[in-house]
């Protein structure tokens, strides 16, 4: 029999693509922020944690505005050359909007912005693919921190465990991860169970624009295409 056209699988996880109107809204919001605030910064981030970043952004809500998203859209908002820049010299910022980068418009003094970014860091559990910052090895013996119900789950993560009189026991030494090596999904889950946090969410200032000057904070950056 032919397949009924009525019986179709509908994917509920599909989301509508953000179109031209959404991009134009971001461009307009950035242009308005450049009018409302005295300076603009490009920053990069490592080990992004959305909730932590949201909290950091809330702390600066009264003094500035953050933008994350398409680098291309942010570049368009700033202007990519002298000919289309929205403020004198601000197109230089767009050259640094590459990779994991964002934009901050603020009224805070330069020294205060630098201090807040330098002091900010949040430790969290590393995710799959992250590079281990240390070797973690579990020694043979009882694992008292785990209940007997956890034994099947630990075995699924590759740990050589067994139940001994209701106590989870590691039958031989086990290396969870090696320093400098990417974490497997099992290693990342095991580190979380052990309470070991290897990821640090940090924000790094790259450069700053004000009506008076343009300053670069990372001297190792390629400046060959900066006019």
Automatic annotation (TrEMBL):
<comment type="subunit">
    <text>Associates with the pre-60S ribosomal particle.</text>
</comment>
<dbReference type="InterPro" id="IPR043164">
    <property type="entry name" value="Ribosomal_uL10-like_insert_sf"/>
</dbReference>
<comment type="function">
    <text>Ribosomal protein P0 is the functional equivalent of E.coli protein L10.</text>
</comment>
<dbReference type="InterPro" id="IPR033867">
    <property type="entry name" value="Mrt4"/>
</dbReference>
<dbReference type="GO" id="GO:0000956">
    <property type="term" value="P:nuclear-transcribed mRNA catabolic process"/>
</dbReference>
<dbReference type="GO" id="GO:0005730">
    <property type="term" value="C:nucleolus"/>
</dbReference>
<keyword id="KW-0539">Nucleus</keyword>
<dbReference type="GO" id="GO:0006364">
    <property type="term" value="P:rRNA processing"/>
</dbReference>
<dbReference type="InterPro" id="IPR043141">
    <property type="entry name" value="Ribosomal_uL10-like_sf"/>
</dbReference>
<dbReference type="GO" id="GO:0005737">
    <property type="term" value="C:cytoplasm"/>
</dbReference>
<feature type="domain" description="Large ribosomal subunit protein uL10-like insertion">
    <location>
        <begin position="126"/>
        <end position="196"/>
    </location>
</feature>
<dbReference type="Pfam" id="PF00466">
    <property type="entry name" value="Ribosomal_L10"/>
</dbReference>
<dbReference type="GO" id="GO:0042273">
    <property type="term" value="P:ribosomal large subunit biogenesis"/>
</dbReference>
<comment type="function">
    <text>Component of the ribosome assembly machinery. Nuclear paralog of the ribosomal protein P0, it binds pre-60S subunits at an early stage of assembly in the nucleolus, and is replaced by P0 in cytoplasmic pre-60S subunits and mature 80S ribosomes.</text>
</comment>
<dbReference type="GO" id="GO:0030687">
    <property type="term" value="C:preribosome, large subunit precursor"/>
</dbReference>
<dbReference type="GO" id="GO:0000027">
    <property type="term" value="P:ribosomal large subunit assembly"/>
</dbReference>
<keyword id="KW-0690">Ribosome biogenesis</keyword>
<keyword id="KW-0963">Cytoplasm</keyword>
<dbReference type="InterPro" id="IPR051742">
    <property type="entry name" value="Ribosome_Assembly_uL10"/>
</dbReference>
<comment type="similarity">
    <text>Belongs to the universal ribosomal protein uL10 family.</text>
</comment>
<dbReference type="InterPro" id="IPR040637">
    <property type="entry name" value="Ribosomal_uL10-like_insert"/>
</dbReference>
<dbReference type="Pfam" id="PF17777">
    <property type="entry name" value="RL10P_insert"/>
</dbReference>
<protein>
    <recommendedName>
        <fullName>Ribosome assembly factor mrt4</fullName>
    </recommendedName>
</protein>
<dbReference type="InterPro" id="IPR001790">
    <property type="entry name" value="Ribosomal_uL10"/>
</dbReference>
């Amino acid at each position: 029999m032919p397949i009924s056209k009525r019986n179709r699988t509908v994917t509920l996880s599909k989301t509508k693509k953000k179109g031209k109107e959404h991009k134009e809204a971001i461009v307009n919001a950035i242009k308005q922020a450049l009018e409302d605030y005295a300076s603009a910064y490009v920053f990069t981030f490592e080990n992004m944690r959305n909730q932590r970043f949201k909290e950091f952004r809330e702390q600066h809500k009264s003094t500035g505005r953050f933008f994350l998203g398409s680098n291309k859209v942010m570049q368009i908002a700033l202007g990519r050359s002298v000919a289309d820049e929205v403020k004198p010299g601000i197109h230089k910022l767009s050259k640094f909007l590459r990779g994991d980068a964002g934009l901050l418009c603020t009224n805070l003094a330069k020294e205060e912005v630098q201090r807040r970014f330098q002091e900010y860091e949040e430790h969290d559990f590393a995710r799959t693919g992250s590079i281990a910052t240390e070797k973690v090895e579990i020694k043979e013996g009882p694992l008292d921190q785990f209940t007997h119900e956890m034994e099947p789950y630990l075995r699924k993560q590759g740990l050589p465990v067994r139940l001994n009189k209701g106590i989870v026991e590691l039958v031989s030494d086990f290396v969870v991860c090696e320093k400098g090596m990417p974490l497997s999904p099992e290693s990342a889950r095991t580190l979380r169970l052990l309470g070991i946090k290897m990821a640090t969410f940090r924000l790094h200032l790259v450069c700053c624009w004000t009506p008076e000057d343009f300053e670069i904070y990372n001297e190792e950056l390629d400046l060959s295409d900066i006019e």
